[in-house]
Structures are given as C-alpha cells and as structure tokens.
C-alpha cells in the first residue's frame, strides 16, 4: 500500500498547468555547456495501463549509466521514512474537518474500494487517502513507468537515485490547507469517483499523445483548480531545486532523469530552466 501511495504522490504533484508552449515529446537529450556526454530527460506518468518503454527510451537508458527519479524509489528505508509523514499536523483529523454526512461518504468510499474504514485513517492527510484510491481510476491492472525504468536499470547493474527526499515531497501536503485537500476527497466520495475516472481517462490519452501543451491546458481546467492554485509549491519550486542536482549528476556521469511529464514544459519547467543555464535540450522523436 505504501508503494502505491508513493507513486500516487508523484502523480498528484506533477500534473499541473503552465503557459509556455513546448514541443511535443516525452524524451529530451541534454548536451552542451561542458558536458562530455549527453544525458536524457524523460516525462513519465506514474499510473498507467501500459508502461512499455519505446525504443528511443531504451536506447537512452543504454547510453546512460545511472537513473534519477523524483525520489529514490529503490531505497529500502523509503516506506519507513514515509510512515512518519502521512499524518496531519497538530493532531487534526478528517472527521473534524467535514460534516458527519461527508465523513460517512468518505467511509463508504474507502470501505468499498480499499476495504478500509475511514476511522482507521482519520488522522491521515486527505491527499494520502486519495493516493490509496488511484488504482481504482483505471479499468486495468496498474503499471508504472518508473517501475519499468527501475527494472531496466537493475538489469544493467546501475544505481538509482532521487532528486529529492521522501520528506521533502511529503512536506508539500502540509503546505496545502488540509481543508482544500479534503474538499477534493469529498467530491470523489459523493460521486464514487465517476468524475475522477473520466478525468484520468482523458489524461492518459493526452499523455500517450506526447502533447505536453495539452497536459497544461487540461490541468488549467476549473475542476483542477486546487492543483493550479498551488503550482508554485507542488511544481515550480521543486523544479528549481532540482536543477543543481541535475547539473551535478550530468557533469560527472551520463544520466537518465525520469520525472512526471508536467515538470518538463513551461517557463519554470525543467526544459526551460536547463536551457537558461546554457544547456542544449532537444526533443527526441
């Protein structure tokens, strides 16, 4: 369950909105600015029906010597580290933030979909609850792009690292008001995730089209307002923090960087930030 939540965290904090147009591609080559060999940047989606890596991605993995994901998902202590950050601060509980009727709706949703009473996770951050429900968004067995990247990397005998810590990623959900988080959860509960499933179906189709600009437009829609309102916390600041680590890794070792696709485009996206640093970042099609 914790591994599921971890992949869900990276999903919810990476599909946000932007304004700058970006060429359609998920795989980008990073070169120039003193790099002796190129590195590669790849936009992922964390929960999908088909995580098959295409030949260009496999070639980029072959050409590099280490993998960086948003967090080190190969760390054996990751789940332990995460456990301490799943609870709301100051003893808050979901049952205190909503009406009895709304909490009952959440309880029914969890009981039906994950076989767990809301009372058992009453003190969890509401977004953590949303993560538990993510596999129910798709009508197929869940696959993960990160999982496939890790599999190939392990077969090559190479190391896996993270651009940020689990604690840093989980802290995002303390910076967003719990009241806003649980409002989204109540919406999911009241229609048994019908709207969520339709939105995720659309998002998968957009991702598979490799149209990063369409992802931006999709997440700017009114029903995704909470994520757009907090894009600085959930996206922009993280991108900026990653650049120094990306530079350090790429300068010493040809590296494959796999991050949520919506981190790539936009004025504050990783592609533009690297270009501003003097790197050549080219779409691989």
Automatic annotation (TrEMBL):
InterPro entries assigned: TraB/PrgY/GumN_fam (IPR002816), YbaP-like (IPR047111)
Pfam families reported in the protein's UniProt record: TraB_PrgY_gumN (PF01963)
CDD domains: Tiki
Entries under PANTHER family matching the protein: CYTOPLASMIC PROTEIN, CYTOPLASMIC PROTEIN-RELATED
Protein name as annotated: TraB/GumN family protein
Source lineage: Bacteria, Pseudomonadati, Bacteroidota, Flavobacteriia, Flavobacteriales
């Amino acid at each position: 369950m914790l591994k599921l939540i971890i992949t869900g965290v990276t999903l919810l904090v990476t599909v946000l909105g932007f304004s700058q147009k970006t060429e359609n591609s998920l795989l980008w080559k990073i070169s120039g600015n003193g790099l002796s060999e190129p590195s590669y940047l790849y936009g992922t989606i964390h929960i999908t029906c088909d995580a098959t890596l295409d030949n260009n991605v496999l070639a980029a993995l072959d050409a590099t010597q280490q993998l960086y994901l948003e967090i080190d998902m190969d760390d054996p202590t990751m789940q332990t580290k995460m456990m301490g950050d799943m609870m709301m601060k100051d003893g808050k509980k979901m049952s205190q933030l909503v009406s009895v009727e709304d909490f009952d709706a959440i309880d029914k949703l969890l009981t039906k979909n994950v076989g767990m009473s809301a009372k058992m996770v009453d003190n969890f951050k509401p977004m953590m609850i949303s993560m538990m429900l993510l596999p129910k968004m798709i009508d197929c067995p869940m696959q993960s792009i990160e999982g496939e990247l890790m599999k190939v990397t392990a077969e090559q005998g190479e190391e896996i690292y993270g651009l940020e810590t689990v604690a840093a990623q989980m802290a995002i959900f303390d910076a967003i008001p719990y009241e806003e988080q649980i409002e989204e959860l109540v919406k999911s509960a009241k229609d048994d995730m019908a709207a969520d499933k339709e939105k995720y179906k659309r998002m998968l189709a957009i991702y598979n089209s490799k149209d990063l600009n369409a992802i931006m437009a999709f997440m700017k829609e009114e029903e995704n307002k909470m994520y757009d309102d907090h894009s600085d916390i959930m996206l922009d600041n993280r991108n900026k923090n990653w650049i120094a680590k990306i530079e350090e890794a790429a300068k010493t070792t040809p590296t494959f960087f796999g991050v949520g696709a919506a981190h790539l485009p936009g004025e504050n996206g990783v592609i533009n930030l690297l270009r501003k640093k003097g790197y050549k970042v080219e779409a691989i099609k």
